[in-house]
Amino acid sequence: MQNMLTIISNALCRITGRHAGAQTVSELLIDLSEYVNITSPTAPVMVTTERQPPEPPPVSARAPEAQLVSAQTDAVARPGARVVVSRSYADFTPAMTFDIKKCDVHRLEEGPPLKAELTREQGLQYYRTMQTIRRMELKADQLYKQKIIRGFCHLYDGQEACAMGIEAAINPTDHLITAYRAHGYTYTRGVAVKEILAELTGRKGGVAKGKGGSMHMYAPHFYGGNGIVGAQVPLGAGIALACQYQGNNQLCVTLYGDGAANQGQLFESFNMAALWKLPCIFICENNKYGMGTSVERAAASTDYYKRGDYIPGLRVDGMDILCVREATKFAADHCRSGKGPIVMELQTYRYHGHSMSDPGVSYRTREEIQEVRSKSDPISLLKERMLSNNMASVEELKEIDVAIRKEVEEATQYATSDPEPPLDDLCNHIFANSPPLEVRGTNPWVKLKSTS
Amino acid sequence: MMAAAARFLIRGANPKLSISGGGTLLKLSPSCSSRTKTQRRHAAHFTYHPDPVPTQYGPTTKMNLFQSVTSALDNTLASDPTAVIFGEDVAFGGVFRCTVGLRDKYGKDRVFNTPLCEQGIVGFGIGVAVAGATAIAEIQFADYIYPAFDQIVNEAAKYRYRSGNLFDCGNLTIRAPWGCVGHGSLYHSQSPEAFFAHCPGIKVVIPRGPVQAKGLLLSCIADQNPCIFFEPKILYRAAVEQVPVESYTIPLSQAEVLQEGSDITMVAWGTQIHVMREVANMAQEKLGVSCEVIDLQTILPWDVETICKSVVKTGRLLISHEAPITGGFAAEISSTVQEECFLNLEAPISRVCGYDTPFPHIFEPFYIPDKWKCFEAIKKMINY
User: Half-sphere exposure (CA, 13 Å, Cβ side) for B242?
Assistant: First the structure.
């Protein structure tokens, strides 16, 4: 039905597009989708404009460090040891402890644990989230190629384990700031797929009201979405200062890429953060290429976890969600205990090029990408772990895939039918002002108002 | 950086442009487009007017703007053994293809990539230049020049002055793609020339097309002052002209009168020149108004004489740029002209510029000072 709707609306667009204004077509589509929602039993409730966050991160399910380390024996052999047993799937393994890759450490006596526990529920949730991000990014790629999304667009596929792993290890009240490859974090910080896609298409229902686009997305405790390479890092240190000053035991996760790691602002921030012992986790998502230049050709030291010098550091396998989660937990504990900042390098990989103009194969080989895809894909890795340990069934995961596909399709529908923001929005939100401020226009006789 | 995208964007949005030049631009305008999408954000807002084929500089070949920049850099590397080119991704040709083939031709010790660090790039360039070599630095987008602002304003611009002429970095040229591109949004569309116009000691130059770009860029490189050379990125592929193959220079700080007229003087630079030329035709056809179109070319130090002479003749002045109106360079021109030509003015000087907003994402078509807004300004001035 949903497919049919898409076809019909596309056709309508095609037929009426030349004569009817954008508004009319959009309204038509909204009307149509409402109609479908009412009449079709399979249609989902996606028309609401409320935020529909993904399932909350399993903060409560987090086991204390000691317990994690001790839980080395097979959890199945000790029934009752875990509370997280799904009733209807009693024959599945409710929880497992996995060996994870050892982190390289810098100025630390001890690193994160070498084993991590994964409950079935966590596993399913991580799978769902990462798969949603993947689907969403592939859809964005498609919409870009159809020229529905315009401008600058940086896709996150390949790096999903970073966003999910970090989110699983911090509290929703902790703070997070990243650069322009922001779609994944926007989703893990609680923004619905449809709001992200609608932002990409520049529609009113987008997470930044259609005014930001790909690089500028925000949510509570998520500070974007920043377009200038490295410029968000000092902001992150500032957020951490606010946390420290307010004494609320919160911290700030400050993300940047391997390219940004060569910007001077980082080192200014490192110094301030270490000097004042700010609760800040600096995370370098090292996806091996800063735009079209490989890390070896851009950085005198590619040991990004050591580049804080006097700040302790960790190098983490960023393709394994459990590694990321455990390392981030470790880093968060480090920060919360008042020891000051910590630097983490997540070794990851982006499947797409740097941005949509970059086919991504002029500075690396197709074989290299294929090898990462086949050997260390974060989603496949998790899936494999769950399936081979009887923590989920193939059918079940397939069902999740189908549901995600549907969600993304519906979000696309929303993102292409939602109206564009009204022209008044051009001048709004320049300053905080009341009463409205007059905005000087292209010429003296056009007056526009700005409100915030 | 994040914006390697622009390469694709320019090519992707108007695929026909590079083949058939400006003529097809009009066909992409909303009224005759067969596009079905509700947004038409990437229809160009101007028609490119190619310059006549220059005859005084020897044989010419067909080039677009980025090729003419490459050609200028090629001439420089060939004739000046101390010249080096560096910037983000320039080794493989740069995101806008301005340095294609130069590394292979002149070696990776002369054309090389830097890390992503604009402040470092410019500071490094000042060092290279002060030691006597010719430094040509590329900032990937004019929007990214701000991290380097301190180095440009405090180091480059003041070097000669503060050392009593013992040292200077006149051999430094900074190139950066500039201006709107159709869908560049906040950080890939800005026109920051006015920031630098407030800074004695540097020169700021913006060409309107391939022939000018090559001549002016070679002048900037030869000039014994640090120069910022902004290249209108929307023209990289859209502008195609017959460009001389050999090296030639076009003098800096000299505005060019592109079209003589008697009723109104129109001053612009970069992409906006092409809007102005179209407006001049419209004004002639619809209002019988004769417009004098002037390309300022060098923003700092600017050619006061040519502009004032023209205003004395026409009595009216319209200035247009993409940057926001408040504090834009039009303000400086306007102020100077009213001081010099007060008694010659028939109407208040008019500025048609960008809004005082950040460069908008989907509202770009409304933000741009397009031909209709300029045309309206002319009507007002004539009927004043």
Answer: 9
